[in-house]
Amino acid sequence: MDDLLSIKDLSNEQIGKIFDLTADLKKTPLNKTLQGKTVAMIFEKPSTRTRVSFEVGVYQLGGHAVLLSDATVQLGRRESIADVARTLSRYVNGIVIRTFEHEKVLELAKYSSVPVINALSDHSHPCQALADVYTIMEKKGDIKGLNVVFVGDGNNVSRSLNVLAKKSGMNFYLCCPKGYELEDCEILHDPKEAAKMADVLYTDVWTSMGQEKESAKRKKAFKNYQLNKELLSHAKKDVLVMHCLPAHRGEEITDDVIDSGSSIVFDQAENRLHAQKAVMMILMGEKQ
Q1: Is 244 designated active site?
Q2: What are the b/e assignments for 93-118, b being 16+ CB within 10 Å?
Q3: Please, which residues bridge with residue 151 across strands?
Q4: Active-site residue among 49, 51, 125, 274?
Q5: CATH number, span 7-125+272-286
Q6: pLDDT at 286
Q7: pLDDT per residue over 60-90, tens digit each?
Q8: What are the residue boundaries of the structural domains of the chain, listed by start?
Q9: How far apart are the C-alpha atoms of 278 and 2, rounded to whole Å?
């Protein structure tokens, strides 16, 4: 494990190690694994959870985080990605990148001599998926055979969750309108039927950053795929409701669902911190 670029790169053994370490770090948050080490954080996209959880995580591991905004780096515009990777590798012990194009993540990792962590790209969101599956394990215990139903777009979050859910022994289904499907995935089109079979109901924004021009079209396409109280009434009593946040309340999910007793949304958000710390410890602590 030299980098974390996508869930597909991880073996089951590596996933198990990340989850074990996540549990340990949740019980004992502070250690000195990254003492004297620095992590560069390239953020081309705005962020709340990702930035704060990584900065706090580096601090709790005894290290120092340097934030590099798009205006500062201008990755691939002011300077080639290869040169940025080579230069940062001389200064820091690891690189976290949150960007639009997954190709940038791959190129950065190709030329970097220090570990690179994908904190979100248009293709993948591996850190989110790790936190999500860990959270399901916390709540359900034995997760093998559980049905995870993602009601929404075949996007980066659903793609990563699809892969990790299957690696972890769960069944993954995407419930979406036609035209918004995901590759290598079981597809459903009826939200009510999907809700009946779900042990976990997951949703995300209908329009991600960079898709703003499609907003009106997407609202129309997804109007019957809202995770609301009526849809929840068709689900099992112990169903878990998940959302990676930020939520557009009143669009993909309603207040009475995201704030209900079924919701574990903010447990997910917290576990981003612990899972990401586990990844950083393995990549930047043990390997260096």
Answers
A1: yes
A2: bbbbbbbeebebbbbbbebbebbbbb
A3: 175, 203
A4: 125
A5: 3.40.50.1370
A6: 60
A7: 999 999 999 988 888 888 899 999 999 999 9
A8: 7-125+272-286, 127-269
A9: 14
Catalytic residue among 128, 226, 268, 276: 128
Structure tokens at 12: 């089951």
CB 215 within 8 A of CB 176: no
Active-site residue flag, 86:
no
Whether residue 127 lies in the annotated active site: no
- 211 is annotated as an active-site residue: no
127-269 has which fold? Rossmann fold (3.40.50)
Report CA torsion sign: 107, 108, 111, 114.
Answer: negative
- The alpha-helical segments, DSSP class H, found in the chain are 12-27, 49-60, 70-73, 81-91, 102-111, 126-140, 156-167, 191-197, 215-221, 229-232, 255-258, 265-280
Name the nearest CA neighbour of 252 among 126, 155, 120, 166.
Answer: 155
Cα separation, 50 vs 222, whole angstroms: 26
CA-angle at 54, arms to 92 and 33, nearest 5°: 60
Annotated active-site residue in 98, 159, 218, 274: 98
Is 204 one of the catalytic residues? Answer: yes
**Fold equal for 7-125+272-286 and 127-269:** yes
**Which pTM was predicted?**
0.96
Q: What is the widest separation between alpha-carbon atoms in the chain?
A: 56
Tell me if residue 49 is catalytic. Answer: no
